[in-house]
Design brief:
Shape of chain B: globular
Distance between the termini of chain A: 59 Å
InterPro entries (chain B): Bact_solute-bd_prot1, SBP
Number of strands of chain B: 9
CATH class of the largest domain in chain B: Alpha Beta
Number of domains of chain A: 2
Number of strands of chain A: 2
Keywords (chain B): Signal
CATH superfamily of the largest domain in chain B: Periplasmic binding protein-like II
Structural class of chain B: alpha/beta
Largest sheet of chain B: 9 strands, mixed
Strand content of chain A: under 5%
Radius of gyration of chain A: 27 Å
Number of helices of chain B: 18
Radius of gyration of chain B: 23 Å
Largest interface: A-B, 35 and 37 residues
Distance between the termini of chain B: 23 Å
Strand order of the largest sheet of chain A: 1-2
Strand content of chain B: 5-15%
Organism (chain B): Evansella alkalicola
Pfam families (chain B): SBP_bac_8
Oligomer: heterodimer
Structural class of chain A: mainly alpha
Number of helices of chain A: 14
Order of helices and strands of chain A: HHEEHHHHHHHHHHHH
Helix content of chain B: 40-55%
CATH topology of the largest domain in chain B: D-Maltodextrin-Binding Protein, domain 2
Protein name (chain B): ABC transporter substrate-binding protein
Order of helices and strands of chain B: HEEHEHEHHEHHHEHHHEHEEHHHHHH
CATH superfamily of the largest domain in chain A: MetI-like
Chain lengths: 314, 441
């Protein structure tokens, strides 16, 4: 250790004071933090800036770029498929996440109660879908949402005397299938977050409620849910962002063609860029998506601030 | 502007490097297996080096070609060459090639391009060598005319690649189902029974009435077969969309829709679980598919002699096959060309056929005794190679155009709409609108 320190202190005198101690420290510090900034510039900042630039060009990735002004934006705004993709993103987002919050809270409540045995086993099991390979998920749900009469989904429907549906073609069935996959994959993750939240709720509150004769549903409604508010907000935020980025599920369920009934915004821009090699319109769609996300995030923040304020007042 | 491009190139290179390094590790430890369990997107490249000559050619291929054996043979005769063969999944292969061409750096000396992607890369113009500059015109006679035309640009002034294998389509059929309907199931008789598309439809009705079974697996393959018999499909040779005025395509669509609505063709989506299962349980009688489908059928119906092969009604089509191209970045274009010319010569194509079932694109092979004598017990001991070669010679040349695949996907979507109950005319119009927007992008 010692010689290194010696060597270090010696260098400035040798170099004749070109580097002051302060500058040297600064340089060292910047060098230490530079890996992140270098990687971020290459893989984060540059693609983002380039995407803005690209949205004003017509480019297929191979031939020279051609400046087209606002044409790409005009194009996507006259494309009914683009509006379908926005609508689908919202619909699937709501259909996939709202049930997650309700079911997640109920599951967490069950796991948290003293009545359930093998609690750790159940906790692990419920988290498993989150870490399951998405390819395996696709195969399993391909069987469940199979167009044939013997597909699991259609079999269940037949028990209620409902005709078979074509899960990958019809308007609502496509959305139901995709949101089910989203629900299945994320409900465990959110349950664990809710569970963590519930464990921070003091036991005394429940004990006091029980003494006062509150039923289980009253306990959930009047103690658990209000105390979980910050956790619910966290889940709503992450789920909102997640649903705007929804891509893998529609792609593996619908294939590269990505039918209009199930295409999401990210899937739309991916298809433009990597199936149709139209990087200009893909970038334009990405920028519109960017603006929508900014708007929704602002809305989210506004709502959070309001909730935070009422809390302080009460 | 050019600074931007340079930065972009550096970025892409970085990604490629990371990918390439991963691939090397995999090849060293497992030879392409996924024992480390992170096969989430299958971005695997297996690398093998041959020879220690000073001129190294990097060769990107996909699929199971068996070229390693041929390369060793070549290296033995040309000790100054060494070849670095990198095999990856077909889509990855094309994506990586696209990225490196786009970035202007990182492309191999020789790249295999599938027929479906050839127009996409032709748009890159100068990024590939025109093989006519190396004397490819001399070997033109080696190959089937329609395959050569695919490698050529529309004005025939450039050749992008030398053809390796092709996928001529024939009619696979189940002998037991044909017999159940009361007909002779020999290849000649079945070919006679369904020699025209009208016969095909009539037999489909009869089969359905007698046995309740369906004539074919799904709409895809019937439509593809009809489509591939047309000399002009979605685009003309100037790259203009001619779908609207093409009565042949509309006829192919209507023909398939009629069979679909009459319940005469199945609803087994291509590559779905029930489609594979259907090959084994005889729920459909025929499958209009290319030579390489033999392996798929063999995997799904282990019993020999159940499936057989004959010619399809009114001609044949082509599905699949590849070309060997030389990106212009290479520093050893001459050597690369010499190698691919050797590799695609009839003698080597015969070896690739006998070894790995790559169906030759060189008609000279069709007259070679080993080829003619090739029989397959699985398909009832008939000379399968000859049937495929007849199909290969019946294929009509067609210009597919850059957006062939996305356009074709939209037509298939129209069939799905019809299957879900949409009016066929409405579905066709809908597909047409979507196609117009794809081309306008």
């Amino acid at each position: 250790m010692e010689p290194v320190v010696k060597g270090d202190t010696k260098t400035p005198t040798v170099k004749g004071g070109r580097w002051t101690e302060k500058k040297k420290t600064a340089l060292a510090s910047y060098t230490f933090i530079s890996p992140f900034f270098i990687l971020f510039t290459i893989f984060g900042l540059f693609p983002m800036v380039f995407s803005f630039y690209l949205s004003f060009f017509r480019w297929d990735g191979l031939t020279p770029m051609e400046y087209v002004g606002w044409r790409n934006f005009e194009f996507i705004f006259s494309d009914p498929l683009f509006f379908s993709s926005i609508k689908n993103t919202f619909l699937i987002g709501i259909m996939g996440t709202l049930p997650q919050i309700f079911i997640g809270i109920l599951l967490a409540f069950a796991l948290n109660s003293a009545l359930v045995r093998f609690r750790n086993t159940f906790r692990t099991l419920i988290f498993l879908p989150y870490i399951t390979s998405i390819v395996a998920v696709a195969i399993i749900f391909g069987v469940v949402f199979n167009n044939q009469d013997f597909g699991f989904g259609n079999y269940i429907l037949s028990l209620f005397n409902i005709d078979s549906v074509r899960w990958n073609t019809e308007y609502w069935p496509v959305k139901i299938a995709i949101s089910t996959m989203v629900f299945w994959r994320w409900v465990g993750y959110n349950t664990i977050i809710f569970l963590a939240g519930m464990q921070s709720i003091p036991r005394e509150l429940y004990e006091a409620a029980k003494i006062d004769g509150a039923s289980v549903s009253q306990q959930i409604r009047l103690i658990t849910v209000p105390m979980l508010k910050p956790f619910i907000l966290f889940v709503v935020f992450t789920a909102t962002i997640g649903s705007f980025q929804l891509f893998t599920e529609p792609l593996i369920f619908l294939g590269r063609g990505l039918r209009e009934e199930g295409i999401t915004m990210v899937a739309y821009l991916w298809r433009d860029a990597f199936v149709l090699n139209s990087f200009g319109t893909a970038s334009a769609a990405a920028i519109v998506l960017f603006l929508i996300i900014i708007f929704i995030t602002a809305l989210n923040l506004l709502i959070t601030n309001r909730i935070g304020r009422t809390k302080k007042l009460s | 502007m050019s600074k931007f491009l340079k930065l972009f190139a550096v970025m892409i290179l970085g990604i490629l490097l990371v990918v390439a390094c991963n691939g090397d590790d995999d090849a060293e430890t497992t030879g392409g297996g996924d024992q480390d369990g992170d096969a989430d997107d299958g971005e695997e490249v297996s690398t093998e080096s041959f020879g220690d000559g000073e001129i190294e050619l990097v060769f990107w291929e996909f699929g199971n070609t068996g070229y390693d054996v041929l390369i060793e043979e070549y290296i033995a005769d040309n000790p100054h060459i060494s070849i670095n063969l990198q095999n990856s999944d077909m889509d990855d292969n094309h994506d990586n090639l696209f990225t490196s061409i786009s970035a202007g750096s990182g492309a191999p000396d020789i790249a295999m391009v599938e027929v479906g992607a050839i127009e996409r890369f032709r748009a890159a113009g100068d990024s590939f060598h025109n093989l006519l500059d190396f004397g490819a015109g001399d070997v033109e006679g080696n190959f089937l005319d329609w395959v050569w035309r695919t490698a050529q640009s529309a004005d025939q002034s450039t050749v992008l690649g030398l053809p390796t294998d092709i996928g001529p389509t024939v009619m696979f059929y189940r002998t037991d189902v044909i017999e159940e309907a009361g007909y002779d199931s020999s290849p000649e008789a079945v070919s006679e029974l369904m020699s025209t598309w009208d016969d095909f439809a009539a037999f489909a009705q009869e089969l359905h009435d007698k046995t309740g079974k369906q004539i074919a697996d799904n709409f895809d393959l019937i439509y593809n077969a009809k489509r591939d018999q047309l000399t002009e499909q979605y685009f003309n040779t100037d790259g203009e969309l001619v779908l609207e005025g093409n009565s042949g395509l509309k006829e192919a669509y209507d023909y398939t829709v009629d069979l679909l609505e009459a319940g005469l063709i199945g609803d087994y989506g291509l590559w779905s679980g029930e489609w594979f299962a259907g090959m084994g349980d005889g729920s459909y009688a025929t499958m209009l598919a290319p030579a390489w489908m033999q392996g798929v059928i063999k995997d799904n119906e282990p019993e020999e002699g159940v499936w057989s092969i004959t010619t399809m009604p009114e001609g044949a089509g082509n599905w699949g096959g590849s070309f060997l191209t030389i990106p212009s970045e290479t520093e050893h274009a001459e050597e690369a060309y010499a190698f691919i010319e050797w590799l695609t010569a009839p003698e080597q194509q015969l070896k690739a056929f006998l070894g790995y079932g790559l169906f030759p694109s060189a008609p000279a092979v069709y007259d070679m005794p080993e080829f003619i004598e090739y029989e397959d017990d699985y398909f009832g001991g008939i000379p399968t190679a000859v049937i495929f070669s007849e199909a290969a010679e019946a294929v009509v040349p067609v210009y597919k155009g850059r957006y062939f695949q996305p356009v074709d996907d939209e037509i298939k979507e129209a069939f799905e709409d019809v299957a879900a109950g949409t009016d066929p005319e409405e579905a066709w119009e809908g597909a047409f609108d979507r196609i117009q927007r794809i081309v306008d992008r």
